[in-house]
Write a structure and sequence with these properties.
Residues 1-40 are annotated as: Disordered. Helices cover 13% and strands 35% of the residues. It is mainly beta and 251 residues long. Among the domains are: 55-89; 109-248, Immunoglobulin-like (Sandwich), CATH 2.60.40. Strands 1, 2, 5, 7, 8, 10, 11 and 12 form an 8-stranded mixed β-sheet that branches. It has a two-stranded antiparallel sheet with strand order 3-4. A hairpin with a 3-residue loop joins strand 1 (109-110) and strand 2. The chain is elongated, with a radius of gyration of 48 Å.
């Protein structure tokens, strides 16, 4: 209504003007300050996220915590045990050999699967049994045969020739094992049987001479359950024994 004050207004301001905000309070002399008090600004301070420890970190922390919790006497016990284990690992406690490392020709040797008796070694240019030619002569090459009697002490067929190794002869190539009686190749020796055979290598003609000696290495064997083939089987162990065998000519 013209000429009448607007009831929604708080009245003219000090200069007679009408406030823009109908709810505003004008300050007049002596009027109370109705301004809202300043509000405090709250800022949350958080620690940066801690990265998760990996497996190595967790194990290291666990060991460190365990070690820090030990008393002095306990620490000495741990150090002493660790020293003993390290010494044993490097062979410091091995005062005697667990198995023989050498054996003599002419005497039986047991590698757990076979009993072997190496008689001698011989050099030939070719291998014949009667009129049958087993291995022909080759230029610049010779055949070295180790004569042995072998018994299979186990309950499984045994590969015999594979258990003979020739140490220190350059260019030696394994040929196989041949029965002395008939010259046939011995592939496997059946349980409980004994055979006299020649285990043969093809070698350079100048590698070994009559009067020399060669080293024949035989592995110790162990009966174990197979990982690929089902059932029990004989395998080489890390241990072996060596015989030094004099070399001659066929008798």
């Amino acid at each position: 209504m013209d000429g009448e004050p607007d009831p929604t207004l708080s009245g003219p301001g000090p200069g007679g003007e009408t406030p823009d905000d109908s709810n505003a309070a004008w300050r007049r002399p002596g009027a109370a300050d109705v301004s809202p008090p300043p509000q405090a600004i709250s800022v949350a301070v958080t620690d940066p996220p801690v990265a998760k420890k990996g497996l190595v970190g967790r194990v290291t922390a666990a060991v460190r915590s365990w070690w820090n919790g030990l008393e002095i006497l306990q620490m000495w016990h741990v150090v002493a045990i660790a020293t003993i284990v390290a010494t044993a690992g490097f062979g410091g406690l091995d005062t005697v050999d667990k198995v023989p490392k050498t054996f003599e020709p002419g005497k039986p040797f047991d590698n757990n699967q076979l009993t072997l008796n190496i008689a001698r070694a011989s050099l030939v240019n070719e291998i014949r049994v009667g009129r049958t030619l087993i291995a022909p002569a080759q230029a610049g090459r010779s055949y070295l045969g180790v004569i042995a009697t072998v018994t299979n002490d186990g309950t499984l067929p045994a590969n015999v020739a594979d258990q003979f190794a020739l140490n220190g002869v350059r260019g030696a190539k394994p040929i196989g094992g041949y029965r002395i009686d008939d010259g046939t190749m011995l592939i496997r020796l059946q349980p409980g049987l004994t055979e006299k055979l020649a285990v043969v290598w093809n070698i350079p003609a100048d590698a070994v001479h009559p009067g020399d000696a060669v080293q024949v290495r035989i592995p110790y064997r162990a009966l174990k359950s197979g990982f690929i083939i089902y059932g029990m089987g004989w395998t080489d162990t890390v241990e072996s024994a060596v015989a030094t065998v004099p070399v001659g000519v066929p008798q």
